[in-house]
Amino acid sequence: MVDTLSSWGRYPAFPQTPHFTHWRGDLSDDLSDLASSYGSTLPYGQGRSYGDSCFAKTDHVLQTAYLNRFISFNRETGVIVAESGVTLEQVLSLVIPCGWFLPVTPGTKFVSLGGAIANDVHGKNHHVRGTFGRHVLSFNIVRSDGQKITCSLQENSELFSATIGGLGLTGVIESVELQLIPISSSKIDSSTIRFGSLNEFFSLSDEFDSKNEYSVAWVDCHVKGSSTGRGVYMTGNHSDSGDLTVNVKRKMSVPFTFPFSAINKMSLPLLNSGYYHLHKAKPQQAVINYEPFFYPLDRIEHWNRAYGRAGFQQYQCVIPENNAESAMHELLAAIASTGSGSFLAVMKRCGDIVSPGMISFPMPGLSLALDFPQSSSLNSTLFPRFDTIVREAGGRLYPAKDAHMSGEDFRTFYPDWKKVEKLRDPALCSRFWQRVIS
Ligand SMILES: Cc1cc2nc3c(=O)[nH]c(=O)nc-3n(C[C@H](O)[C@H](O)[C@H](O)COP(=O)(O)OP(=O)(O)OC[C@H]3O[C@@H](n4cnc5c(N)ncnc54)[C@H](O)[C@@H]3O)c2cc1C
């Protein structure tokens, strides 16, 4: 029996049956076979999306994990060509020793190139480099009618833009040509500083974001009043000194799914306060490996199991600059007042570099990502409250993290959904798309 697949949040529970594709040359046949057997399917990378955007409407997905070969790597120009199932971890292992790095990386390296394009992922350097899609020179995409189409900003540009952030709906990306960035060391010069309020965060971000390649903040969601929004602000830059080594650390693992969530009303205040006080009020500088800087959670395999059998939901929104501070206050106050809290609360100022993607998530402003153990009150009470704040502030939600957004909200947040729908491959549809479009 084949093991079924889920998304990272393990909510909602729609077990996905994987159908593996192994060779670029077979992709077209594999896609049309699936379409004729089940009606439609969806490409599935590493399942690091949280909600239902990586679930096929039919619950039969086309798994790309074995499309994991490099095709070429130009060590002079830093351009790689690879199959779409290659993960960011594989890319880093190949390119770091040669003095190259990913131009943009999300908070986990266990993401496929195809998945990184389909959600047009962003990282801690959005303010200087924009989204992942900006660094994609071209890709080949296979459609269910047997066509293989090369897309770039110059060639088939409409399909290129619809596919970047296009949620896997416009065809199966077969291979990707990506421009890397040069580095002279795999170490990161990092700096952390505590801030006592949201207001202090904005001052730090105004002063330091533009001077650093990477910046991000962690927020303590449990405090109320004048300390609302206190947290830890972190910056980083690729170091000039040190060698070019790939970090291979032994991993810890959560061996089984907890019967209930270990992240709960009792543990959360302690975790939050402990993490806040672990950091000093004065700036702390350190030269650290890239792994703990970019991927602190990757060290614990299956950490999502700690949220218990019911799984968890992430709520990620971005609020435009002019309303960011007030809306963020409202969101954090709403969380603190319910006591529900989140441990992984990450705030990031997004910049104004425009993505080629038609329905990419980031916009200039402030993004907030929060993880909550699943409970029915999220969708009935807390998230609707958040949604009102986000809607009124002119913000939007991130489909890659979503399991609750209403169709009306999605269509308002992403008016270009119609262009993507026009270019959607009729053999591809997700549970997310079915939820927000029909
Ligand atoms: C710990 C953690 C931290 C994260 N941090 C960030 C972050 O900082 N920034 C951010 O933007 N995201 C972040 N994410 C989300 C993650 O980066 C995205 O969800 C990413 O798209 C997952 O890639 P995947 O390979 O797992 O794709 P999946 O989750 O399997 O699929 C995602 C989408 O890609 C499509 N897809 C996959 N392969 C192909 C293909 N070959 N052709 C066409 N479409 C394809 C799927 O149909 C689906 O729509 C994080 C996730 C985790 C678990």
How are strands sequenced across the largest beta sheet? 15-11-13-12-18-19-17-20
The small-molecule ligands in this entry are:
flavin-adenine dinucleotide
Helix content: 25-40%
- The tally of strands reads 20
The number of distinct helices, counting runs of at least 4 residues, comes to: 13
Overall 3D shape: globular
CATH topology category name of the largest domain: Alpha-Beta Plaits
Computed structural class: alpha+beta
**What's the number of domains?**
2
Question: Beta-strand level of the residues, as a percent range?
Answer: 15-25%
The Cα radius of gyration reads 21 Å
What is the first-to-last residue Cα distance?
A: 33 Å
Assigned CATH class of the largest domain: Alpha Beta
- Regions with little confidence, pLDDT below 50 for 5+ residues: none
What is the CATH architecture annotation of the largest domain? 2-Layer Sandwich
Average pLDDT for all residues: 94
Précis, in short:
The protein has 438 residues and is of the alpha+beta class.
